[in-house]
Write a structure and sequence with these properties.
The protein has 357 residues and is of the alpha/beta class. It has helices at residues 3-27, 47-60, 73-82, 96-99, 138-146, 155-160, 181-193, 216-226, 258-266, 310-324, 326-336, 343-353; strands spanning 36-42, 64-69, 87-90, 112-127, 135-136, 172-176, 212-214, 230-235, 243-244, 246-249, 252-254, 296-304.
Amino acid sequence: MTRRRLFSALAVIAASSVLVGCAANEQGDAWSPLTGTLDATGSSAQAGAQDVWIAAFQRDNGRVTVNYEPAGSGAGREQFIAGGVSFAGSDSALNEEELAREFVRCAPGTTGIDLPVYLSPIVLAYDIDGVDDLGLDAATIAGIFSGEITHWDDPAIVALNPDAALPSSRITAVHRSDDSGTTKNFTDYLHEVAPEAWPWEPSDTWPVSGGEAAQGTSGVYNAVTGGVDSIGYIDASRATDLTVAKLLVGDEFVEYSSEAAAAVVDVSPLESGRAENDIVIDIDRASSEPGVYPLVLVSYIVACSEYADAEEGELARAYIEWVVSAEGQALAEKQAGSAPLSSDFAARVLETVATIR
């Protein structure tokens, strides 16, 4: 072979190698041992983060498909228990009644477990013409959403905001119409911090008549932005372009932030009376520690501790490990606006994830 032909042949081989490498990168890691499909549904608050996690996981595992439908936390838990999906996303943990049921996809004699994977402040987003700085305390928020406080120039709101040009217009308070873990977290905050103004127990279902109801996180967003003199509670990751209220914590108004959300989780205990591998955080909503934001949504992946199908268990474990990893948490913070779990707390969760079978 002449030198010219040799160089030509080498060039063809090199070009082919580049094309193969590009194809492999575009299709994901063809050499990953993982294969199969995970179907999931649940929390609409998790939707943005799930999109980010799924895209990266599938890129690195080219023979895996993960589908996530943000149908709401209540629907997610119900479908998971009934065996319709491999796991659920939920903004509230499994309750005693749910834990007592048969989990169809789990191995006989085992049950579902809660794994905290997503952390975000819940914010009070509002749209009041001429008001771009608003501070509220739990009792006043409870009055607004219970219907006891009906106008923006109510004395309770004016007392907290003496320099604001509050209008005399009627308040449109927007709540979730679907069973929602965001609602449960919001009502838990109101009940714990202002029980006299909010006597209702925490619930996924909105407990008060009146107000304006909207389906899902996107529904609340649209109702607030499209309404007049409106206010609604919403996951902070979906409220980046909205005006939000500060919360009174102790003697100071606190703005929401990832750091403040993570801080209240780190000072809160785990819920007692649960199995060791069922990790549920009992948020200290009444904390007056400096720098904490107590209106926080902790969202869970609800999975089997042991799957009836061992291959499904292996795939679920691998995916959840990626979600909780430092890289997965950082990616969701950057692209979906969530607050990452602290490294110590994430390590605790990963220990449990490693036991999934």
